[in-house]
Fold this sequence. Notes:
Blueprint: H1 2-23, H2 26-30, H3 39-49, H4 51-72, H5 77-85
Amino acid sequence: MRLLSILTRAGLVFLGAVLVAAVSADVVWDEPSDEEINTSDLASALFGEWALPLLALGFLMAMAMVGAAYLVRDERLVNLEWELTGGEKE
Length: 90
């Protein structure tokens, strides 16, 4: 398990280095674009080309929120009794 954690961290560092190298490459920034991008172009790209990935991302985020809500619940007997009686001693 510890080896898997170390490999995951090393993989994330490697991925970060690759992303930084790709974004900071001179080829990306050498030639300026003649095309102006406006909000309608962004909207058509998000809802056209990127519709399925955004849907998948929303589904994953919803699953994460449901999981977090489940993990936060406290089901100890003392807390359940307090919820049922409203905190009043009988």
